[in-house]
Amino acid sequence: MDVIAYHPDSDTGPTHDDHPMINRTIVDGVSAADIDEIRTTTPAVVLR
Fold this sequence. Notes:
Elements: H1 20-23, E1 26-27, E2 30-31
Antiparallel strand pairs: 1-2
C-alpha cells in the first residue's frame, strides 16, 4: 500500500527546524519553534 499525503500549509515540506504545525503552535505567547525545551532529542522510530 502506498500512502501519499499533501499538507496545504507547507510549500516545501516540513523539516525539523521549519514545520508549519510547530511554527503555529503558541505556548504562553511564544511560538513552539522558539522553545528548545519542548523539542525531543531522540529520533523517531519507524516500525514496519
